[in-house]
Amino acid sequence: MSELTYAFSEGNKDLREVLGGKGANLCEMTNLGLPVPQGFVISTIACRQYLTENILTDHLINEIKNRVQTLEAQTEKTFGTGTNPLLVSVRSGAKFSMPGMMDTILNLGLNDDTVQAVAAKTQNLNFAYQCYRRLIQMFGDVVFEIDIKHFNQAFETLETEKGYPAADFQKADWLDVIARYKEIFAANAGQDFPQNVYDQMLIAVEAVFKSWNNDRAKVYRQLHNIPEDLGTAVNIQRMVFGNYSETSGTGVMFTRNPVNGTAALFGEYLSKAQGEDIVSGARTPDPIADLEAKLPAIYQQLTEIATKLENHYKDMQDVEFTVEDGKLFMLQTRNGKRTPKAAVTIAYDLFQEKRISETEMILRIEPGMIDHLLHPNFQEDELANHTAIAKGLPASPGAAAGQIVFTAEDAKAATQNGKKVILLRNETSPEDIVGMTVSEAIITSHGGMTSHAAVVARGMGTCCVVGCQDLHVDEDQKVAKYNGGALYEGDLISVDGTSGKIYLGQLATTAEEISEKLNDILDICDKHARLMVRGNAETPKDIREAITKGAQGIGLARTEHMFFKPARLKAMRQLILADNDDEITDALRFIKGEQKGDFEDMYDVLLDRPGTIRLLDPPLHEFLPSDKGELKQLAAEIGKDAATVADKARALAEVNPMLGLRGVRLAVVLPQIYQMQVEAIMEAAIAVSKRKHITITPEIMIPLTGTVEEMAMAKQLCVDTATKVLADANISLNYEIGTMIENPRACIIADALAKDADFFSFGTNDLTQLTYGYSRDDAHKFLPTYLDKHLLPHDPFQVLDTQGVGTLIKMAATNGKAANKQLKVGVCGEVGGEPRSIRFLNTLPIDYVSCSPYRVPQARLICAISEIERQSQDTYAHTNA
Amino acid sequence: MSELTYAFSEGNKDLREVLGGKGANLCEMTNLGLPVPQGFVISTIACRQYLTENILTDHLINEIKNRVQTLEAQTEKTFGTGTNPLLVSVRSGAKFSMPGMMDTILNLGLNDDTVQAVAAKTQNLNFAYQCYRRLIQMFGDVVFEIDIKHFNQAFETLETEKGYPAADFQKADWLDVIARYKEIFAANAGQDFPQNVYDQMLIAVEAVFKSWNNDRAKVYRQLHNIPEDLGTAVNIQRMVFGNYSETSGTGVMFTRNPVNGTAALFGEYLSKAQGEDIVSGARTPDPIADLEAKLPAIYQQLTEIATKLENHYKDMQDVEFTVEDGKLFMLQTRNGKRTPKAAVTIAYDLFQEKRISETEMILRIEPGMIDHLLHPNFQEDELANHTAIAKGLPASPGAAAGQIVFTAEDAKAATQNGKKVILLRNETSPEDIVGMTVSEAIITSHGGMTSHAAVVARGMGTCCVVGCQDLHVDEDQKVAKYNGGALYEGDLISVDGTSGKIYLGQLATTAEEISEKLNDILDICDKHARLMVRGNAETPKDIREAITKGAQGIGLARTEHMFFKPARLKAMRQLILADNDDEITDALRFIKGEQKGDFEDMYDVLLDRPGTIRLLDPPLHEFLPSDKGELKQLAAEIGKDAATVADKARALAEVNPMLGLRGVRLAVVLPQIYQMQVEAIMEAAIAVSKRKHITITPEIMIPLTGTVEEMAMAKQLCVDTATKVLADANISLNYEIGTMIENPRACIIADALAKDADFFSFGTNDLTQLTYGYSRDDAHKFLPTYLDKHLLPHDPFQVLDTQGVGTLIKMAATNGKAANKQLKVGVCGEVGGEPRSIRFLNTLPIDYVSCSPYRVPQARLICAISEIERQSQDTYAHTNA
After folding, report:
1. What is the ipTM of this complex?
2. Domain boundary residue among B475, B510, B545?
3. Chain segment B709-731, per-residue pLDDT in tens
4. Which of B88, B383, B713, B874 has its CA 20 to 30 A from that of B296?
5. CB proximity B788 to A under 8 Å
6. Which cofactors does this protein require (chains A, B) (predicted)?
7. B773 chain-A contacts, CB cut-off 8 A
8. B66 vs A569: CA distance, rounded Å
9. Distance in angstroms (rounded) separating the CA atoms of residues A41 and A5
């Protein structure tokens, strides 16, 4: 065995570095005993030698000649001479396939003499000369870059001149064709078409080597970080002909159904044809199943080979084969591409068939597939037939159609009349929640992937497109202009939350349901994961959704989301605008009753699973109307002077609300609110514990702490309140008090904070905002440019910034756990459901992630994958230590 | 020598722990050979013993009696008997003086017998019985808490009954007084006034010991972190009487003038009086200088003692003395309190007199003094005679009076008419700069210590009060209401920037100038400091101010401050609202010409001192008018459609401008601005270098970087631009490119950023905002509550948060310097001029601080103090290692 060339029987699939992907695979199939046309591989080592020395060495040339001689002996054919001439294909094949490389030359070995021998041997003049014509054309195209239209035009001209089709050509006609082809070749290549078949072969090999350094390949390698010095291999293989006879043909086959995963052969077969004929689509192939009747022996053989290949590769295979004169030849096998649904089904079935292990099954499923499986999508052909009128950021996946409304109120009114609506606004605010809930989809012209609209929509699993700058929305006039038209209230549109595109009219969708198989797989995932997964939810509907999707509890229930029902909002406004303690007490009494009901509803679904409830977080002015007229109306409603109310609203307004009076700061300035909330939580927990005969352990979370003193103060407030509630009820119940870690300072002083906390939960949205100094509401003005110019690898609100924010989280989690061994640590920001982020978080001393209910399945999968990969790396590191 | 009692000759000033402050000092003076009335100290050890055992031990009682016998021998008097009875004072004296402790009992040793002996010996019946009366009264008051009004009322009643004043009392009258006093004593104390003089002494000593644990003392110790177990000493000292004869008297004297520091005795003397008589103010004392004529020998002796004390204590002393019958006794000496001006003068003079070293001189000056010296203040009596109508936060020190205006335009107009104005607004914005510049003082009703108004005012050295919530300002109606009245345009008010108070009318001020002595001291400070001090300034006036005040360069020149002249503002607005590249280019061409002029003016003053110029930092919308009417007018001015301009303004508006499109992000989205600025800087540097025959090295600072990629990109933009300018000018000039470190992420990745930076400058304002998540503009809503409730030790925008922000700065400076040994590191935020912050920064690998020109002198002092203290701690640590 030389290292410059390998017979197929000498290589295997692990030698991709030396043999290239295609060559290694041909070797592997050969060794499996499959009927692969014989041949040999010229290695990447030979290529690298050529790229250095710019010449094919005599040593290599001799080896190639020896290999050809062996091939002659194996096939009982002779190369360039004799009555049974050997024809071969020459193909490139690098370790990674890349565009721009010289591809394929077929029928090499034909010249003016051998073509006649082939014609005689096959008794098929037409076949032999068609092969010869193709060789000259391909050789010219691939090696000398001669445009094949020159050849095709000449061929058509000759057919016209002759007055009959090529099928009726006689030898003289073919000699005319070949003569014309040679002229074209010589004129464009500057040399004659080589009649010496070794010249043909060596020129072709050299051309493959040279093509490693063509421009397209170079650019591709740079883009994909493929090393420049790998080089390519060359595969030389005996030709087989699917177009040789009536019992010849060619096919492409998947060992299972790549669309839905069913365990049956799937593919197409075209008789009397070569591979190109299937690809070109000139003739319509038959389903592979038809072969069972037509060529039963071949079908049987294919079935056996499929099983053999799956057993060997442990995955569904995509194979190419040719039948030459009733004999089957395998030309290619590789892991088959498949739809998300098929991927899940196949992985699960292979596991059930005991062909792969649990961890292998898990690693077969890509995170993105889950998201795809769980949301409806527009049908592919519908998308192909429609042009989007606008495109924004795909904030929440799914597909939906409905009539446009421009306000949350209109959304509510229209849906009460039984309409399906799409809410279209410049941006949304917490006041719009009800309208958002009833909408099929939400579009905003401003805002980024983590704007209010995006976050809320993902939380609800509602299709959403944000930052859709193509639409110029005038909410007052209820019109949205776009390049080429305008959208008015009531217009029917379709929204693709996966692509961010907006279409006129209603496109048909394809809804997918989470399958039982997926559920089984995710349960197995949970066994392998280290991180637990919780859901971010507060309504009974969302909590139920999260639990159904496999969340082990609730990581973030946002109590402010409970304040937007009209009666509550009014009470909240009364509280904010109160002039004295009595007014505050009255408003809080009402709100407490409502909140207690909310928490009871929550615990009725959640039962004794863990659930973290965050105390009020947003700035108070978010609860007031921003419009002057509405403020006036509010003043009248609650019986206050309009000017005074306007003054208070102005006093509450903030230049940078993100950095203002919110979170635990509310407890410092107006402790009654947290007091009321803790009472409501504890009373609800007591009531449901009794009613359901369970033991609920409330987890009360204080948001936005940044100093040890404020944490201690807020904790004391909670403890005092909870103690009083328990004493009044004469009952004992455990509860936990923790804090959301959302600002850099909290991360820095985490060790001190941990001493006063039962748990930490990282709020990565705010932490990212503060670490970078990016406002989620404003960053859309520059983040796209940052991403375009590669100044940021990702939108850090979507994918955790491991270098900056991640360093703070690591520091805080590590120091927090060191200071308090009992400390539970979670991550409940948007990135808690994102694959790359979870991979990183899995390496930290963190106990769980929490995300929107719709992202829970994906998160469960990634938690398992991350941990499996981490352990295998540990093992690897250990083995190599 | 026992450890329970010390004769004055046995102790010294270093034994404060054992002898208390007062006792240690009496010992020290005794050992200096000064005429101190003899006595002894009962130590804190005895006190601690008593506090444990609750009884005076026989051992202690015996020691006290022995000490008294020694005292009898020294004074040739006898205690409680004889013709020349020994009278003593009993005083408490802990290590730290504290309120609530039992204070003083005089004349102890008098009883019904000895009082007659004293009367006989002094031939002064009145004197003797006055002393006795006082003893009973003080003993009753101090030991048994008998209200002295009982004694005083009885005394007055007797005077009335007798019908003549006490001066005319005969023995029978005095016996009546004493009998009445004894009755009162017995009735209230539940025991007779002790006639045994040792009983008097031991009861008094026990009372002093007990008073260690009274409530006021305990609270005081808790508040001031004084250990509970120190205990107090007791001083027992022979009485001397300033009220004994015509050549008797008492005085209080400073060895130098404590108001202005002049090196001459300063103080007061009252003849025929005791210390209390001076303190009570019943009689007016004479200036100490009068003694020179009256009692020349005593005056001479005092002069010599003053010199001796200053030589010994190396500081100006505040002494108390008594002259008894022509003989001088020293009762007390301590370092004298003094005005800032005197402090500076005295420290400097003591250094010149070679009594103290350079570092001793520096450590004598407190940072706050400098600020006081450099700003005018209202006269003390003026303040005493006026009541403030409102109080806000003292944002920038000084005192000013003027007529109220409510807009920057009005300020400009009024000052052009020769008026002095106070600008009163809810808050200020960059548009108000011109109006702020011409105002005597600025008041805002909103905003905190680092609001726009506060920062700009401090930068200009203009008196400023912010967050003055007592004033309800209506800028439209031009009225400000306060509790009790209203202020209208044109009303004359006075503003105290040091206290934050506002007064009606014009109060007289006292202007102080920085003295030559202070300049000399600060120059000496520079020799001892490790950190250099630069100024934050951009106008020639401010730069000159900074240099005059001793800045070694400019640490922060904010280029956006240069954009607010009308023509420039218009061009800036044209740039922001441009529809195409031509409009951008036109606007930039104009602005560049202006900026180049600015930078030339800047370098003309700065010359080749280092100067860091920050490229444009604020969000673009800050340059647009916020008012709709003004926007419309602007559109007309620059010939654009009003609706389009309104749309653009709306698109630029931000929810959280602090976290929006600003700093280096501008360079990413609109690189032309930085390009223009770098051209202007480089061209100006070239022009001034040539004109002045110097070599300017521009320091160009990129604000707000948070990723390595944006730093690299912005740096390349600057380098390319600078290279082109230099090539065009055919000149070579060094320049430096650095970045402002303002967000937590920059701190975390500082090592990577440092590789691409010549310098770092920490922007502590923004860094603090982001680390805590506090908006400078909004935090005034909760920071006061945080400070009240001790949830924060200081306002972190005024005093660096060493634990949080400081940790980030330490990390970044350390890692930055490790990655790039050449890296220069500075701090240019508000805290760069604040004492506690500088102390911390001095411990980090930082090269300079930079602050408002007016704070430069103070910063120079603190830099020296910090380094001197650090080195002495190092030495200490080293010595003890």
Report:
1. 0.78
2. B510
3. 999 999 999 999 999 999 999 99
4. B88
5. no
6. Mg(2+)
7. 658-659, 704, 706, 742-743, 745, 766, 770
8. 83
9. 5
